[in-house]
What does this fold into?
Amino acid sequence: MHDYQDRDYGDAIADVYDAWYGDITDLDASVDFLARFTGEGRVLELGIGTGRLAVPLAATGASIVGIDVSGAMLDRLRAKDPDGRIHSILGDMVDDLPDGPFDLVFVAYNTFFNVRDVDRQQLLVRRVADRLAPNGVFVVEAFVPESDRPGGDTVGIRSMTADSVVLRADRHDRDAQTIDGQLVEITEAGGVRLRPYRIRYATPDQLDDMARQAGLVLAERWENTLQHPFDTESPTHVSVYRHA
It folds into this structure.
């Protein structure tokens, strides 16, 4: 996708993110899952967005730092956090990570894949490992790529109501493990709105290898934060890494 910038996804989707993705995972289960690793410790969220998880996690007593490349997303976060309990950083989650140590670093709902180059993904894992406390953990939540998904173009309906439709159009490169797409929102009142995205996905095994190269090992893997067992049919995973 020509001229795509890292901030484009967040800036384009910030106004509808909570409406479209607020219940994409079980919120209470996600907060409980993360809270067991930190208590009142120090937490870093990569791609904090609108604070879907960070705001309720901060209410448990954790000290939250969040980084996001989208100013529009962080504006939404700050509106939900009028007391300023969450320290937000506008910046790239590879190049601009704050200093540690952190008891928990986490990246939710495929956000790791927004790093669009395999070498930079590896660099991110190394920099996270450097910022983990001795007993700290790195939690990655992501989809499991479909091994039989063909390359090429796909167009489908994401959602549809009486006065709007959201189409998903994407181009899949199997060799590069990239998906370039647009969420095309068409409404009777507002016309057409484009919300672009681009990801570079990785399999659980590839993530495990990145972790090993950074001195981390897989401690737990679940299908989701409800802690359903992970198996070969699981469409998603939540992986917990610790220092080797």
Q: What stands out?
A: The chain has seven helices and eleven strands. The domain at 152-199 is CATH 2.20.25.570 (N-terminal domain of TfIIb). The chain has a mean pLDDT of 95.
